[in-house]
Amino acid sequence: MKFRDDVFLAITAVVNMMAVYFAIFVAPAEVEMGELVRILYFHIPPAVICYLTLAVSMVTGMIFLRARDVRYDALSESAAQLGLVYGVVTLIGGAVWANATWGVYWNWDPRETTTLILWLAYLGYFFLRMSVENYERRASVAAAFNILAFMTVPLSYLSFILWPSLHPRLGSEGGIGLTATMVQALLLNLLGGLFLYVWLLRKAYGVRLMRDELEKKMSEEIRLDD
Amino acid sequence: MTTEVAQVIALYWVSLFGLAIWLVRAGSSLERRLRGKTR
């Protein structure tokens, strides 16, 4: 198991090193944006993975509601934790890009606003978890809230179709035109990002299960002491 | 490469590396504590 983990981590490292090399040295600059287009390779992967991990969190939360197996709740919480991290990386990275192209870090663009709402909804998910003492009840309430919070994901994704937005679209008229090498660099960064995400999720899930086990052992000890 | 590109690359990699290191350290610490409890 340890050997397989190490091999997976080594593959993740190699793919990501290649992806960063491609993004910085191989992919060309864009006609209008110039060098700034390279931000794309480090902005789209965390955004896609943020949506993906929140989908994993919602689906495992729903499975928990049916199966009542606490391991699904642990996986759901771990995936949501990663969603918060990827979400904040997407928001701050996007703000830096916005400042470089629009001259302002934040301008309440529909994509920015709905992604911030998404992030706040999942921050609320963790506050909700902290507010419920009973383990079973906490997991059920969190899974139900997760289904509601997930509605912010399609809202964020479709925001620039639903409302007029400055947010550029890939390949569309007036958007960012990508050459074949740029697409390759983007896909490679996405693949590297996904490998790293799988590794992080497995680690976060493992930590969460160990924390549960330790808490169970400690409460058993307290009961025996009484 | 512009400063902004470097800032976003640093943000992405420092955050994810930081998270990875934190998870590895938390995992080892919990493993040690669990081993102590089962002994």
Protein described:
The complex is a heterodimer of chains A (226) and B (39). Chain A is an all-alpha fold. Chain A has helices spanning 2-26, 40-67, 70-102, 110-131, 135-149, 152-162, 180-225. By secondary structure, chain B is mainly α. Chain B has one helix and no strands. Chain B has one helix spanning 3-38. The longest helix of chain B has 36 residues, at 3-38. The interface between A and B is medium-sized, with 33 and 23 residues.
Please give the structural blueprint.
The complex is a heterodimer of chains A (226) and B (39).
Chain A: H1 2-26, H2 40-67, H3 70-102, H4 110-131, H5 135-149, H6 152-162, H7 180-225
Chain B: H1 3-38
Q: Can I get a quick summary?
A:
By secondary structure, chain A is mainly α. Helix content of chain A is about 80%, strand content about 0%.
Alpha-carbon distance between the two ends of chain A: 39 Å
Radius of gyration of chain A, whole Å: 20 Å
Oligomer: heterodimer
Order of helices and strands of chain A: HHHHHHH
